Amino acid sequence: MKGRFQATAVAALGIATLMFAWVGAAAAALVTLRKGTTEGIYVVFWALLPAIAVAKFAQDVGPLCMLLVSAGAAIVLRNTRSWPLALVFSVFGGMCTALFLQQFAQDYLAAILATVQPMLDQLRSQSAGRLPQILTGDIAAVIGSSTVLWSVLALMLARWWQSLLYNPGGFRTEMWSMRLPAVATVVLVAVMLLIGRMGEEFRFWGVMCLLPFLAAGLSLIHGVVGRFGLGRVWLVVFYIALLLLGPLWGLLILAAIVDSWIDIRRRLSKTA
């Protein structure tokens, strides 16, 4: 945050390293959140150079897509101060990423599919053919979902940095209170249902719409534990259970949907 050169260097170097591309995207998002769209675009512009180079020479469009979507989400968050809108924008960015690849980069998707096909064939043989045949549209969905996930994580990291520097405790307050409004829930569910009717190529695209519900569900859990002073042990137990019990993910999504309509934290506060 000392100047353009430092911010640009961190963002560009992070993007270029692949493994820490999300840190580079977070650096660009931090500049946007703190100093505004103009300064953010300046940093993003120079970070685009290594991102494009990675896409061209390393055949990995992930850093490029993540940089653009996280920067856009940062602009939305700065201007609206709404995490739900930023999450919805990230889903939109992931959808656009998958759609662009599906329409204009079939060779790229086919190359990725050819690379992972031996592993997929082995899994199909082990599952006695129960594993569905993977299509290029499924690869596009994976890249789109990854874009949404890592863009949101980069934005959260940027917001956490901003809180540490300028507003201690602000990030925790935001995360404890984040919930999807009912309108956003209806839109996301409607998009999932529409995508489900678009054909086999789009069968996994709806996963992108689930990510905001997961973020809101985790926020609900953290908010309840934090506000009632239950201690971190409860969070540790919850995350262990989340890793071991698959159905718990569905319950987390359902809790986020219900919370968007009845505001569970507010109701619990009234009864406490």
UniProtKB/TrEMBL annotation:
Signal peptide boundaries: none
Keywords: Membrane, Transmembrane, Transmembrane helix
Membrane-crossing segments per the record: 37-54, 83-101, 134-158, 178-195, 202-221, 233-258
Protein name: DUF2232 domain-containing protein
Species for this entry: Spongiibacter thalassae
